[in-house]
Design brief:
alpha+beta; 52% helix; Helix Hairpins; 3 domains; binds magnesium ion; 5-stranded mixed sheet; binds adenosine-5'-triphosphate; Beta-Lactamase; 5-stranded antiparallel sheet
């Protein structure tokens, strides 16, 4: 029972019904009181009119009071309503009375025990109930007592009260049923949401509530938010699944290569030169594997928000010169002209190791995609609160089909996925994660020829919050 009472539907209904019952009860009582008041007022005004009529006909002489020369007091009004009348002396003696005088002793007692004269009151008289008015007449020498039977009136009031109670109770019950039904209907979307949330597993995240509620409906908004959350979860799970599958694939390829290489080598006795060549192949694959696992580890840390960025002063000019000089021998080997343009001055706060990783990948990509005789230029410049690092090359440019997914993990132009020609497709996503961790971003900028990657990094930590404004690709 307690459990049921805790249900929102029951609580809503109870609150509504309690408020309604209080209002309906009050309205019923007020109606009954007003009705009784008007009914009694009509009786009282009839008594007062009769009292005026009788007192106007009283004669006083020789200490005697009589009505129109000893005419019996009238027993009904001009309209024919029966009203018993009694003229009582100051000592309680009946001077005159209408009708057969039934109940006259009770009326005489009421002149002494009742409320002050002039105030009508109810009195049980001879087995019935009367409305009684006592008034001093004849200059205070006598009391006029008028009594009108009100059994009928009291019966009407009792019937009205029963009717009102029946109506109010009926309304409360029907409102309770209606309220319970309405609350149930209004809360149905919540039940649907709860049932869907209960049933959903990571395999059917494609399910949606699709509540059809009018625009602006609060529960509709909640449902839409729930659907949007499911959509985000679905995207995240899909990404995770793809990522795991791609990672497994990428890790399996070099392992297979190494295994084959070793199996072939061990099949016969080899010359030392053959063994050296075989080991070199295996070493190359191990380097590739360790680079990739390192990249994956960094990306996982970035995902978990635990990529620690050490904000130390970095002098952009010296930093770019250092990276370019490291890549110079390889550029020369490929016949590519590698150069740097650095605007003087400026210091930024950043993580030198992470930034080096990012720039290394951009230069590595550029050198790999630029044919012999081409140019690769690294430009460092200050643009307002941003320090931009641009890597420009004269290669074929990024495959247009790849551009929408360029910064996603394992995104590569080559569908055959041959790690020996390129990398695993993790470099740019790592650049993106590093730039974002610094409060900046990375983007593929428009270029007349080749590819142009621009990294935006805030020069001071205070510039970082405006990243959404100025950090494209973040
Ligand atoms: N300068 C560029 N010119 C043309 N295409 C590029 C350039 N840089 C990157 N790309 C394309 O973007 C893809 C993703 O680059 P990314 O650096 O993420 O991966 P990768 O270089 O293939 O491997 P990794 O960097 O993990 O060793 C590349 O495979 C290539 O197709
Ligand atoms: Mg790369």
């Amino acid at each position: 029972m307690r459990h049921r009472l805790r249900r929102t539907r029951v609580r809503l209904t109870l609150t509504y019904v309690t408020a309604f019952a209080a209002m309906a009860g009050l309205a019923g009582v007020a109606f009954w009181l007003a009705f009784a008041h008007f009914e009694y007022a009509a009786v009282d005004s009839g008594l007062a009119a009769q009292a005026r009529l009788i007192s106007g006909g009283l004669n006083v002489g020789n200490g005697q009071v009589n009505f129109r020369g000893d005419t019996p007091l009238p027993g009904e009004t001009k309209r024919g309503i029966a009203i018993a009348a009694l003229l009582v002396s100051r000592v309680g003696k009946i001077i005159d009375q209408s009708g057969n005088g039934a109940g006259s002793s009770a009326l005489v007692r009421a002149t002494r025990a009742g409320p002050p004269p002039g105030t009508p009151f109810n009195l049980p008289v001879a087995g019935r109930s009367d409305r009684v008015l006592v008034l001093p007449v004849a200059g205070g020498q006598a009391l006029l007592v008028l009594a009108q039977p009100i059994g009928q009136l009291q019966q009407t009031l009792a019937t009205t009260a029963i009717l009102l109670v029946t109506i109010v109770v009926g309304l409360i019950v029907s409102n309770a049923v209606l309220g319970y039904w309405v609350a149930g209907r209004a809360l149905r979307p919540v039940r649907v949401m709860a049932a869907t949330a209960r049933d959903i597993s990571e395999h059917d995240l494609g399910r949606r509530l699709r509540l059809e509620l009018p625009p602006g409906d609060e529960l509709g908004e909640l449902g839409a938010t729930f659907d949007a959350m499911l959509a985000r979860l679905e995207t995240a799970f899909d990404g995770l699944r793809r990522f795991t599958a791609d990672a497994a694939h990428e890790l399996r390829a070099p392992l297979t290569l190494m295994r084959t290489q070793l199996e072939v080598t061990l099949r016969h006795d080899r010359t030392p030169e053959d063994y050296r060549a075989s080991h070199r192949v295996v070493l190359g694959e191990i380097e590739h594997l360790s680079r990739m696992t390192e990249q994956l580890l960094l990306l996982a840390r970035a995902d978990a928000g635990s990529l620690v960025v050490q904000r130390l002063p970095v002098e952009p000019g010296a930093f770019v010169e250092e990276v370019v000089s490291r890549w110079q021998p390889l550029a020369t080997q490929h016949g590519v002209h590698l150069g740097a343009h650095v605007s003087p001055g400026g210091v930024m706060l950043g993580d030198r190791d992470l930034l080096r990783r990012c720039l290394d990948n951009l230069v590595d990509n550029a050198l790999r995609h630029t044919p012999s005789g081409g140019h690769v230029v690294v430009v460092s410049a200050l643009e307002g609160p941003w320090w931009t690092l641009t890597v420009d090359d004269t290669g074929p440019g990024v495959d247009p089909a790849l551009r929408p997914h360029l910064f996603e993990r394992f995104a590569r132009a080559d569908p055959a996925r041959t790690p020996h020609k390129g990398g695993a497709g993790l470099g740019l996503s790592l650049c993106h994660a590093i730039a974002v961790a610094h409060g900046g971003g990375i983007a593929l900028a428009a270029s007349a020829r080749g590819a142009r990657f621009v990294v935006h990094l805030p020069t001071t930590p205070s510039a970082a919050p405006s990243q959404a404004r100025a950090a494209p690709g973040s």
